[in-house]
Amino acid sequence: MKITKEHVFYSFTGNNAPAMMVDAPAQIDFETMDCFGNQLRNPEDVMEEIDWDRINPATGPVFVNGAEPGDTLKVTINSIKLNEKGTVCCLAEEGTLGDRIEGSHTRVVQVSDGMVHYMTGNGKQIDIPLKPMIGVIGVAPADGLDINTGTPGKHGGNMDTTMIGEGAVLYFPVAVEGALFGFGDLHAVMGDGEIGVSGLEIPADVNVTLEVIKGKAPEYPVLETADDFAVIVSKGTVDQACQRATELMQEMLQERTDLPFEDIVMLMSLVGNLQVCQIVDPEKTVRFVFPKKYIPGLTF
Ligand code: CA
Ligand code: ZN
């Protein structure tokens, strides 16, 4: 099964018409555009001329038969195949240093041999190892809500989280019938924080497996890798997001072990990592990451 980039949406809502209906488990190829709608693919393309209604396209949505509010959509990212070039930008009034930037600037950068071949404005090449990841990924929020694809939240969305890469497993709270899952905004590499509002934005082909877990749902997206168990929380401020992420991790660990509450607090303090995902989107995103090896069998 494959969904091409002709099937995109710009806000997560229960009102989107499905691009595809599937029975779970389903393995699907997604063709994604970059966050600029592939409008800045050449050095001569300028930000002043792009159509801002085509920003942050997400491919989909997929209606998963049998997924109902209160269930979890489990998403396994099997593989990410990046295009051979990507685009990074910075512009005035955007991002953490926006008040120091004049105008808008883009670099179109080649990607090959597992590396990003970054070229500076004064002709220096800096090679950076690829770390492919998905910026926007999620499900429709609860009935009536309509959240543009540039904003993160309980439904996922523009979380810009570097851990959302090949091999990662995500757990989303299903809020409408069919879940209406989709994603886009791949990055060849991005630093935690995404301080300049852009990763190396790049079209990609991504293969995912969708499964439904009945009868339970997380408050915010949960993420697992081979080594880590994490919750990804978006709130108005980083402080608020840190507080809620820490509370949710404590609750999840409590439900999954017989350890006394105080030991969970102390273990979270010793080996848990509160990390910034992004601080430049309408809501700020952090993650609390707990290494699985300290609690055998720890999983969603
Ligand atoms: Ca993004
Ligand atoms: Zn992006």
Uncertain segments: none
Q: What is the strand content?
A: 35-45%
CATH topology of one domain: Endonuclease I-creI
**Rg, nearest Å:** 19 Å
Query: What is the CATH first-level class name of one domain?
Result: Alpha Beta
For the biggest β-sheet, the strand order reads: 1-5-18-7-16-19-20-22-21
Shape: globular
* Biggest pleated sheet: 9 strands, mixed
Helices and strands, in order, run as EEEEEEEEEEEEEEEEEEEEHHEE
Q: What is the overall number of helices? A: 2
Identify the quaternary structure here.
single chain
Helix content: 10-25%
CATH architecture of one domain: Roll
Coarse structural class? mainly beta
- Residue-averaged pLDDT: 97
Secondary-structure topology with pairs:
Elements: E1 2-3, E2 8-9, E3 11-13, E4 20-23, E5 26-32, E6 58-65, E7 72-82, E8 85-91, E9 104-112, E10 115-119, E11 125-129, E12 133-138, E13 146-148, E14 152-153, E15 156-158, E16 169-173, E17 181-187, E18 204-213, E19 222-224, E20 228-235, H1 238-256, H2 261-271, E21 273-278, E22 284-291
The chain binds calcium ion and zinc ion.
Zinc ion (ZN) binds next to strand 17.
